[in-house]
């Protein structure tokens, strides 16, 4: 047993107190700072960041625009992006990249993939302009032209894929008449779909150029009701998020042309495979739904009488449609609102002349 020692206990107590005080001394604040000077410096840094961001977007826009109408440059950029993002640092890098280039990469120089690359880079350029602050209305003509190019490209690729299927079926059946397909047709279709459908904001080119953040800025307008589609080939997405809202706001009759095109392309696609089931489903479900949406936008641009007439025809013609009950309720509500007279304006009563207090002399 250790004997009691007052000095020993006093020393222990002093040690405990001093140890407990150490964090207090370590947490002591620094000398006063010049807050006004720091605030001024922060404003300068903010201005510098904005300028650097604009310069970065301008450089990226120049690089991307150079590839829009230059198929060779576009293919070169895509190839470099693939090598940097998918093969750099990997074991046997040169061998693996050479294998990719000889197989999937061989499709880069075909006209089909060149079209997909042009769409991808063109939409990337438009997205960069939007992210830099260009108004949607200012970009609208270029956006609409892009949708026309993307629609034409999709129709051509659908025909390309259909020809591939026909020739494959003929070859498998042993019948004569099958054309000899190029060895890289499958690679062409795969690479086309990848380039046209991949969002430009997180594609390999955006990663390689390190502009994912710049491109994502284009979607920040969603808080103000200004959406932005990120996929170059998604025509429906481009229209629904960018074009149609502007058409509705401006009561632009071109909005009906979009629905007419949807109806025509939908009918062609439904009958392309010559399957009665697909054609029947389009006629009794898809087509009425498109016509209803067209009528809704007809009302949005001010043609309310025509819209109600067409909606009434749809309700009568397709009572078994999955959306028939919702259509009926919507049309009923619109008619009730149209028949409800607007409230008369409230006119405040005139103040009697005797109640008017003359001003003090």
Give the N-terminus to C-terminus distance in angstroms: 106 Å
Order of helices and strands: HHHHHHHHHHHHHH
Shape: flat
Evaluate the radius of gyration: 34 Å
Keyphrases for this structure?
mainly alpha; 14 helices
How would the blueprint of this fold be written?
Elements: H1 6-26, H2 35-68, H3 71-87, H4 93-102, H5 111-131, H6 136-173, H7 185-197, H8 204-209, H9 212-216, H10 235-250, H11 254-272, H12 276-300, H13 304-317, H14 324-339
Helix pairs in contact: 2-3, 2-5, 3-5, 5-6, 5-7, 6-7, 6-10, 11-12, 12-13, 13-14
Could you characterize the architecture of this molecule?
- There is one protein chain.
- The protein is mostly helical.
- 71% of the residues lie in helices and 0% in strands.
- The protein contains 14 helices and no strands.
- The protein has helices at residues 6-26, 35-68, 71-87, 93-102, 111-131, 136-173, 185-197, 204-209, 212-216, 235-250, 254-272, 276-300, 304-317, 324-339.
- The protein starts with 5 loop residues before the first helix and ends in a 22-residue tail after the last helix.
- The model is unreliable at 13-17 (pLDDT under 50).
């Amino acid at each position: 047993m250790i004997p009691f020692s007052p000095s020993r206990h006093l020393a222990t107590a002093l040690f405990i107190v001093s140890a407990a005080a150490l964090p207090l001394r370590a947490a002591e604040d620094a000398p006063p700072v010049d807050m006004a000077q720091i605030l001024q410096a922060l404003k300068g840094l903010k201005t510098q960041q904005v300028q650097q961001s604009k310069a970065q977007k301008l450089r990226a826009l120049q690089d991307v625009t150079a590839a829009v109408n230059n198929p060779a440059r576009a293919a070169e950029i895509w190839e470099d992006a693939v090598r940097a993002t998918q093969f750099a640092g990997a074991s046997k890098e040169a061998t693996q990249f050479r294998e990719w280039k000889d197989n999937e990469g061989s499709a880069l120089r075909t006209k089909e993939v060149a079209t997909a690359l042009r769409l991808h880079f063109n939409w990337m350029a438009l997205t960069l302009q939007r992210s830099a602050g260009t108004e949607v209305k200012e970009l609208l003509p270029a956006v609409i032209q892009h949708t026309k190019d993307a629609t034409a490209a999709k129709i051509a690729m659908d025909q390309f894929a259909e020809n591939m299927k026909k020739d494959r079926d003929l070859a498998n059946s042993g019948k004569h008449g099958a054309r000899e397909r190029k060895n890289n047709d499958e690679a062409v279709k795969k690479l086309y779909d990848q380039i046209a459908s991949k969002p430009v904001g997180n594609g390999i080119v955006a990663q390689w150029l390190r502009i994912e953040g710049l491109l994502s800025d284009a979607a920040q307008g969603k808080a103000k009701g200004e959406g932005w589609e990120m996929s170059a080939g998604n025509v429906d997405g481009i229209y629904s998020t960018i074009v149609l809202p502007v058409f509705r706001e401006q009561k632009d009759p071109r909005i009906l042309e979009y629905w007419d095109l949807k109806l025509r392309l939908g009918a062609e696609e439904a009958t392309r495979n010559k399957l009665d089931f697909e054609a029947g489903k389009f006629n009794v479900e898809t087509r009425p739904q498109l016509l209803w949406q067209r009528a809704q936008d007809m009302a949005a641009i001010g043609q309310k009488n025509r819209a109600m007439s067409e909606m009434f025809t749809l309700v009568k013609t397709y009572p078994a449609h999955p959306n028939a009950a919702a259509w009926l309720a919507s049309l009923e509500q619109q008619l009730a609102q149209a028949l409800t007279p607007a409230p008369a304006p409230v006119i405040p009563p005139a103040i009697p002349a005797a109640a008017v207090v003359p001003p003090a002399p």
